[in-house]
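Figure S4 source data
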Amino acid sequence: MRNDGRLEPAPALRAIASTQATFLWSLASSGNSLYAGTGAASGGSQLLKIDEKGAITTAASFKELNVQAVLPLPDGSVLAATSPDGKVYRVRGGGTPEVVFDASLTTEKPKYLWSLALAKDGDLLVAAGAPATIFRVKLAGTSPTATPKPTVFFHSGDQHIRSLLVAPDGTVYAGSDGAGIVYRIASDGKPFALYAAPKHEITTMALDAAGNLYAAAVGDRRPPALPPLPASGQQAVSITILQPGSAISANNNSIVPDGSEIYRISPDGTPLRLVALQQDVVYALAVRNGALYAGTGNRGRVYRIDTENAGVYTDIAHTEASQVTAMTPTAAGLAMVTANSGKVLQISDVVAANASYISDVFDGETTTRWGRAEVTGSAAGVDLFVRSGNIENPRDTLGNLWSDWKSVTANQTPLPAPASRYLQWKAVLKPGAQLRSVTMNYLPRNLPPQVDDIAVQPGARYTGGGSAAPSSTVAISFRGAPSTAPALALPESGAPPLIAQRDRNAVTLRWLAHDPNNDDLMFAVDFRDVHEQTWHRLKDKISERAYSFDSALLPDGEYELRVTASDAPVHTDADTLKGERTSAPFKIDTTPPVPGTLTATVGAGKLHATFDATDATSPISHAEYSVDAGPWQYLEPAGALSDSKSEHYDFTSAVTGTGEHTVAIRVFDRNENAVSVKALAR
């Protein structure tokens, strides 16, 4: 699959051998055989020989943990570089490995050996790290029992020389870890910094026939955060030096941040970033038949990179391993080794005869009818198949629980897949075919909308604003909202709480609703007295999820409201579905209590008054009295608890002076409807 979504037949991928090793770090081809270097957390490493039939034999074993590089020599022997604290061994058929380079015997004493190459004159070049050095070792005329004396061919201030290759003209290219520099080194050892990558580690390089150099880099170049050092004297200061590692030295599946980038450096030195892979680390590059291939981790994928058009690449193989660590050309294609787990695979030079691609499972979220498939790409050479089911995984422990794959013909409608929740398609491509897009038309079964909650607030009017002073507003919450947080945000839109104006002559309701098909909705509101059976329409064709009305439209009483949601805006009348919900009962009370006769008498400096008050709808909440226009004072009913629709009041108040006195009474119900009366006491 190309990164723009275009699908084409991939090269055939086959397994050559599966080893017992968890890690295979290196690979080389010699004649009809392959040599692979293993890695292990403990117990040493091996050089494995894989013949053309895939049979595996151990060519040599080493005490070091990893065989990081393998290099066949013209005489049929094979060099193996081991790490850490490693050596370069020469392995001849069946004999004891000969040490041709021992890092511990050098002045630099590098800890890691990363790459091997032969100089044009036949000398061995060894790329090492900690410190970054390239050693030169003369192999010609060396006695099997003597270790050749190496010389330093190149030394840099980086941590590692991670990758190494030699061009046909003898020019040496080296990639570093630390500063992320690609060096060009002449045969006499004169270095030149060819390119400084924006990443810190050059993991691998490749060279094509036209002299273009390809380099892969990984790791952000931001300097590491160093802990502060104590500055006070006479204290022991412990300093730990941490040796920077390399991407390939990690024996785990951790993702290297920032992904990898691949660059092309033309023969005149002009660099060009070809691709940036955000989720992949490039461990190996190889040129085959003019194409550039990249083996990556930590998803074990192989990409073919377009070297002429920057930003274009094709995902050609998924290896089912975590890392593709090394690649080498063979007579039939491109061989590669993997880590986690250790396998030897080959990508053929020819594409698969019947390359198939299976799409992700599409979820229609409900029972769905499947319509025509729209396919763009080659006019011929593409066969399309579909299947459907009602569980997400087509297979479980009971076997295949979906429909069978069915072939799709041009413009076939409906698709040959039963109505169901899930659908999957498969394309089989012949060589040369190309698939650009596949679109499946579908129609989910219409499901009714749902009204999830209703809140009714008498004494409030919603105008769509919310800028009034807090003292004149009321927050309308749903029944499930905590009392400490009465304002509830609308979940479907993330809108702020519904703020309504205080208005004793209005009623506001709000509701939550959703549609399983995400259809547009409209709403209707009905009312009825709790003692009635018949609903009466209050308002229809409401698009908002809140509505206010004048309470005077309804006589005093106890009512319910019903909100009906309809998906009519996007369906015909025959297909329209509805859902409804009824509110909790609420009261409308706009009539004040009715007072009885107020009687008042004066005697012995005291005023005595009695009266009754009755409300038709809600209980009396409280009463107040005033004598001779004095301050209002709280008045208790008989029994001291005001909780009934009828209350009796009998009270005495001290007065001064003789003659007549005026007493006034105010009575409130629970909805703050009030009535006042007065009487003259003699």
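Figure S5 source data
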Amino acid sequence: MCASPIEEYALLADGRSGALVGRDGSVDWWCPARFDGPSVFARLLDNDSGGHWFIRPDGEFDVERQYLDGTLVVRTVFTTRDGSVAITDGLALDAEARGHEIGHYPPGLLLREVEGLSGRVPMVMSYEPRFEYGRVRAHLLRHGTTIVARATGSTLGLAPSVPVDCRDVDASATFTVEAGRRETFSLSYSPTYHQREPMAVDVSAALADTVEAWRSWSGAHTYPGLYAPLVRHSVLVLQGLTYQLSGSVVAAATTSVPVTAEGQQIYDYRYVWLRDFSLTLRALSSAACPDEAVRLFRWMAEAIGVVGMEPVPIMVGVEGERDLSERQIDVLDGYVETGSVRLGNAAWTQRQHDILGQIVDAAWLLRRSLEPLPDDVHRLLRDIIKQAAQTWREPDSGVWEMREELRHNLTSKVSCWLALDRAVRFGTRLGSPAELRRWAAIRDEIRETILREGWNERVGAYTGAFDSDQLDASVLALPLVGFIRADDPRMLATVERIQRELTVDGLVRRWPGEPGGFLACSFWLVQCLALAGDPDRAAELFESLAGRANDVGLFAEQIDLCTGRQVGNFPQAFSHIGLIAAAWRLTETQIDRYSQAGKATS
């Protein structure tokens, strides 16, 4: 049996790691120690060798599922000819990591409850743990009613409420669930050196505590804008992708899910891109989570440290690690047998100027909550501003992390402008009057250069780089940061050209010929339309894009333009950030419309 398409999965999270469970009841991805740790289930990347744990009806079934409201606990209802059954899946929230007092569960506790709804449904369970990306199979041993596997310094303990046939390296069970009956399963992870026996747990109580803990967090954050249910859910997804011990947010929970049918563009996304992270802070702030945003910003400042004129790292590990050296492993066949699985990401060595402005802009957005500026934040911002002032003329790898030659990328120049513009707005909180005058002069020089060199008369649009004829959807960000008005004639021409040549059914490709529509860029187009005075069309596009989420409201990175299927690592924080930002922009646009209408009638 093949692993499910990526859009068939739901995310479970516990503040340290994420697991993916499919519509077919199979947990096909879990790295329990932390997001970028070694896997114990990786069937997502190899049908046979990756490892899985499924519980499902024995026979054909129909499926409906949803997250329990305000949580990342998923309830799947299977309907068969014999009756119906529900499976509730969740990762117990780590009380220490999340800072709550509801439940006292160690990290790495996967909970599954099977509930009979009608009739008598025959069920089947298959448990095949495979440690360290399928490299190691462990002997399964019985310890009372628990089945224990130890390998590579890790211990897994499976505690089922039904009899299990335990073989050498895997286990299975068949059982029947009738209406009103419940069966429970827990799988606990711990480092073997802790010498902790797998804990006995009341699965139903632990699930109830986990639901309450998620809802306690959700209830403390209210979003006052349009599309509130969609925004609140996307914020939950960002929380699910947060490594709570540090406050870092990974780009996605998976590695090596390609964005093309040919298996190209395979990367490990289980790290923290500081550009995306800064945009996450903006999203959380607009979604009425300012305290969370400030905590995360402080972590980012600590993770970056003192940089001087060294390039600001574009990405780090979940605890701030710098060396993310990339390697390919040949144990797994790869997603849909692409033959490639990568761990690490070579982009960590790149210089990307666009990170500079995003960090300073995030600080500007959070300025009231950061006052007075902590010393480490003050030092970091000054270092970044100095870099932007001195390096803006240099080429870089750009926002799309091209691994070929460096270019004078337009959005990288704009980001240097953004860093200096926000620095000037900070005023004497960041620099002396003389420094402010110098920063303002460099800011203005950057802007003049971009307006002159970034516009391509032959194309009739702003292009992706100086002296380039290629359209690039990244330039949709120009009006979003206030560099240029969205209704400026040249920006309008650029947006019109992008819609005509890069957009298919509302999905925006990053460049000509790309087979997928990039969801973040598509949500940027929503913002551009709203800012340019076409909020109705913007709202229509927003709703169309939101409707492309999977059945539990999750987005990957892209949508394949031929098949309409989601592609890329999953779920993708950047896509959910785009939704939040677009929803808030539409909210602001509506407020402005009402304000202008009120002035006109007064």
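Residues 573-601 form the longest helix (29 residues). Residues 6-217 form a domain with the Beta-galactosidase; Chain A, domain 5 fold (CATH 2.70.98.10).
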